[in-house]
Design a protein that fits this description.
By secondary structure, the protein is mainly alpha-helical. 82% of the residues lie in helices and 0% in strands.
């Protein structure tokens, strides 16, 4: 069923990519990418709920994880083709967050790092870092927070840099990593 769903989503991406108005094309392609990531996050939550009550053999679990990775990869790929930056950045941040909540941290980082502008990329990375820290992946979280802080420092506009740095510091304080 995942293959069939991927085919439908790919067709939706193709059709939305044919829209001649660039604003509408960007919005529709972004919506397809976001819908895929939302569905992948839902699948991850349902599998997690099922696992709490039932045993899942390793092979079946691996198939679920592969399907989730494929869905998030598809969402990232479609989103990377969105022509307008504002739509692409906003949805990449959301895909990163949804991937992290689904515990697909490599896909979350891939989505966050696909953002070309420093401020939204730093914000997305700090969200992924927070999720990593909350799921006991402290060393990896530290690496991501360092990366986010370096990117935040590279933001040229003072007021935007202050907002991004403030967001990062707030997350670190909330995690007890900075006082």
């Amino acid at each position: 069923w995942v293959e069939k769903a991927k085919g439908v989503w790919q067709r939706a991406a193709e059709l939305s990519g044919m829209i001649t108005n660039p604003d509408l094309r960007s919005e529709m392609m972004s919506r397809v990418a976001l819908d895929i990531s939302e569905d992948a996050q839902t699948i991850a939550a349902k599998v997690s709920e099922y696992e709490q009550v039932n045993d899942i053999d390793k092979e079946r679990k691996a198939r679920y994880e592969q399907a989730l990775d494929e869905l998030f990869d598809l969402a990232i790929d479609i989103n990377n083709r969105v022509p307008m930056t504002v739509w692409r950045n906003e949805v990449a941040e959301k895909i990163a967050t949804k991937s992290a909540l689904a515990l697909r941290f490599d896909r979350a980082l891939k989505a966050a790092r696909s953002i070309r502008q420093n401020a939204p990329r730093a914000l997305a990375l700090s969200r992924v870092g927070e999720a990593l820290a909350r799921y006991d992946r402290g060393d990896q979280a530290t690496e991501v927070f360092v990366e986010a802080s370096q990117i935040a420092a590279a933001v040229k506009e003072d007021s935007v840099r202050h907002v991004v740095a403030g967001d990062l510091v707030d997350r670190l304080i909330a995690l007890g990593r900075f006082r």
